[in-house]
Amino acid sequence: MDKIKIGMIGLGTVGSGVLKTLANFEQIEIIKIAVKNLNKQRNIDNLDKSILTDNPYEIVNNPEIQIIIEVVGGIEPAFDLIKTAIKNGKHVVTANKELLAKHGEELFLFAEQYNKVVLYEAAIAGGIPIIMPIKTILTGNKITKIAAILNGTTNYILTKMDVNQASYESILKEAQELGYAEGDPTGDVEGFDAAYKIATLSTIAFNKRINIQNIYREGISKIQADDMKYANEFGFKIKLIALAQLDEKGNADVRVHPMLVKKSKSLAHIDYVTNAITIEGHPVGEIMFSGPGAGEFPTASSVVGDVLAIATELTTTDYPLPMMRCHHETTAKMLDISETSNKYYLSVNTKNKVGVIASLGRIFAQNNISISSLLQKGLKADNTANIVVITEQCLEKDMQNAIKSMKNDECINAINSLIRVME
Q1: Which residue, among 213, 212, 200, 208, has the nearest Cα to 329 in the 3D structure?
Q2: Catalytic annotation, pick one of 90, 197, 237, 343
Q3: Which CATH number does the domain 4-126+296-324 belong to among 3.40.50.720, 3.90.1750.20, 3.90.1010.10, 3.40.190.10?
Q4: pTM metric for this prediction
Q5: Percent of the chain surpassing pLDDT 90
C-alpha cells in the first residue's frame, strides 16, 4: 500500500508532538516540514533535517503531498497557505483557533468549492475530543447550551488564587515563571483565546454561524483575592466561562467572562490547566467532556486523529467525510450582553454610617433587582465596610443602571467587583 504523504507547517510544541506520534503509523510519511529557523535545536530524537524547509510554500505547492498539517497559528501567512494547499488539491488539518473564528466561513466554503476537507479538532480544547462527537454521535440532539472552561492559563491562575488566597498579580507572575502564561498574557487573561474557541464550537453545536465580533468578552484581571474568599463563603468557585446558549426564540447568547459556579456543579472542580466542556441538549440531557486542553501530546492526539480520519477516506471515496464538512446556511441572531438575564455577585465598599443597606436596597428596587444573599464582615482599618450581595435573576441593563446609581450615591465609595453567576 502506498504511504499517505504529509506536509507539516510548524514544528513547535504541538508540531513536535505530532511528528513523534505519527512516527508510530507505518502508512503515514511526513516528507516535508516548514520551520521558521532551520538551525534551532529541537527535542526530537533522530530528526531528519533534510526534510526541513524555511519556505512553507514548498509544502503547499508540492504535488506529492496529500494532507497539510498547519500548527503555526495566527491569520497570515496561515490563511493564504491553507487556501493555496486546498487549491492544489490537499486536505487540511489545523489547530488554528483564531483563523477559524475570524475566517472559518470563508475557509470552509473555499474547501467545499475544491471538494477538500478541513478538520480542526485540536483548535477547540487540545486533547479533548469535542468536534467529531458533536458532528457524529451527538448529531441527533438539539444542543441548546454549552458552558466550558477552554483556557488552561486562566484556569490555573484562578485555581491558585483560590487555593493560596493570593492576588491576581502575584499568581500571574508565578504562572509566567512556570511557563503556564506568556510574557504577554493578554490573549489568555483577557478572554480572546476562549472567545475564538467558543465561536467555532457554538457554530458547530447550533448549526448556525456565530460572528466573533458579536461575542461579549471580559477577562480575569479584575478578580480580587477577596472575591475568591467571599465566593467560597456563598458556596461558589470563580471560573472563566465560555458560555453559549439559545433562548426560546432561537437567538444566540455567546460570551466569555468570569462566573461564580456552584460547588455542586462539576465545572467548579475543574482546576489548574485542565479544560472541560458541558453540553446540554435533547435527548441526551447534560454531559461533560474534560481533560488536558493544551500540551505537546494531548493536542497532537487530536491532530493525529484528524489526519488518520482523512487518510482512511482517501482511497475509498471521492467525497470524503461528508458529516465533518460545513453545512451552515444561516447566521445566528445574537443577543447583546445588555439583553441577557443573569444572577450577579456584587462587592461594594461603603461608608460606615446608618442607612447604607437601605440605600443599596432602594437602588436595587428602583431597577427591578431582588437580593438573594448579603454578606458584611465588620469594618476595615479605614472605617469603611465591604458589602457583598448575590442577586436574583435580572436583566444586565438593569444591573448596569444600578451600578451607575451606586457610583453617584454618597454612601458608596467604590464598586469592587461585579461578576455574573452561572445558573
Answers
A1: 208
A2: 197
A3: 3.40.50.720
A4: 0.94
A5: 89
